[in-house]
Amino acid sequence: MLNYDNPKLVIETAKLEPGSITWRSPSNLAIIKYWGKYGLQLPKNPSISFTLENAFTQTTLEYAPKVNLEQGIELEFFFHDEPNEAFQKKTTGFLERLSGIFPFLRQLKLTIRTQNSFPHSAGIASSASGMSALALCLCSLEDELFSSLNEDEAFDQKASFVARLGSGSACRSIFGTLAIWGESSDVEGSSNLFAIPYDEQIHDNFKSFHDDILIVSTGEKGVSSTAGHALMEENPFAQPRYLQARQRFSLLLTALQKGDLDAFGKVTENEALTLHALMMASNPSYILMRPNTLKLIELIRAYRRESKQPVYFSLDAGPNLHVLYPEGVIHEVRPFIESELVPFCEESLWLPDWIGEGPVQI
Ligand code: DP6
């Protein structure tokens, strides 16, 4: 079993110059969803996602030698330039849990400054971009201090492993285009411990896909994803769901390779609705879609029937809608989105987005 614990990663603090590291890391949209986990953030089924471009988190990690070495993690946290106590506590706990992997963190005074590209209250899931940006900063810091991660593949794998510990879906954001997380006999090298890139076998139809995000509600979610995953344990549909996810995963890979838009759309939309059906069938049951989510779904399906354009929807664990379509139809589809769909968004909020190239160090 892969184990990144390394007690040798300690520094001579007297010699250390203060410094800082910045990464920008994107969010991602799962086509086959991760919903249900076990052990230490391990997925019950393989998932595959589009990496986005426009929805990202930018995080700067500042470090300096610590004066009082007795303390544990010493961290200040600023979100959009404001001190944020809730994030400070959550991140301190996470860094404490990582101190077997990065023992040097306890020797440093740390400051994290982070911001999202999308409006703070837009209701766009930010754990994937946030946790992946942080994991990348931590791996860069390790490499700067010990020159221990200078091979790209080793760096990405460790960053993905660490991001997974922060939030499962974050491990996929380390890679551009598409990423796979979770063991599958269909994909060599796939693992429950980290994600891997999946871009070479993709048909051109999918390489420049758009994924516009329509904000139906900016309100705080009633049930977090973490609580939602936990409810899968007693969900009577859990086992058939995990089996279905595996079958759909294989189907989707074939569609992606062949460029089969129709098969892609069927699986994508059914996955989104299955995710929400599982929430409704949980005990206690809950609903994250809002009336306008359904309205938008109906409008997209009607438009597709009439125009025959390949436009599909997906959902995250929330009310907002992702509209998916290939680059080739943007001139027909964009006007439809702007005139027919955006009026159903909260304060006409929407974020044009597309498949991106993955995180960048700034
Ligand atoms: C519906 O990764 O947010 O977006 O591992 O508890 O942090 P934790 O959950 P999270 O769950 C994401 C669920 C999803 C589907 C997906 O991204 O695969």
Give the arrangement of secondary structure elements:
Blueprint: E1 19-32, E2 37-38, E3 42-43, E4 47-65, E5 74-79, E6 82-83, H1 85-97, E7 108-116, H2 127-146, H3 152-166, E8 178-181, E9 195-197, H4 204-207, E10 209-214, H5 225-231, H6 238-258, H7 261-280, H8 291-307, E11 312-315, E12 321-326, H9 330-341, E13 350-351, E14 360-361
Parallel strand pairs: 5-7
Antiparallel strand pairs: 1-4, 1-14, 2-3, 4-7, 4-8, 5-6, 8-9, 10-12, 10-13, 11-12
Helix pairs in contact: 2-3, 6-7
Bound molecules: ligand DP6.
Ligand DP6 is lined by residues 30, 33-35, 41, 47, 127, 167-169, 225-226, 229, 275, 316-317.
Folded structure, characterized:
With 362 residues, this protein is α+β, with helices and mostly antiparallel strands. It folds into two domains: 13-200, Ribosomal Protein S5, domain 2 (2-Layer Sandwich), CATH 3.30.230; 204-351, Alpha-Beta Plaits (2-Layer Sandwich), CATH 3.30.70. It contains nine helices and 14 strands. The protein has helices at 85-97, 127-146, 152-166, 204-207, 225-231, 238-258, 261-280, 291-307, 330-341, and strands spanning 19-32, 37-38, 42-43, 47-65, 74-79, 82-83, 108-116, 178-181, 195-197, 209-214, 312-315, 321-326, 350-351, 360-361. The strands form three sheets. Strands 1, 4, 5, 6, 7, 8, 9 and 14 form an eight-stranded mixed sheet that branches. Strand 11 (312-315) and strand 12 form a beta hairpin. Helix 2 (127-146) packs across helix 3 (152-166). Bound molecules: ligand DP6. Residues 30, 33-35, 41, 47, 127, 167-169, 225-226, 229, 275, 316-317 line the site of ligand DP6.
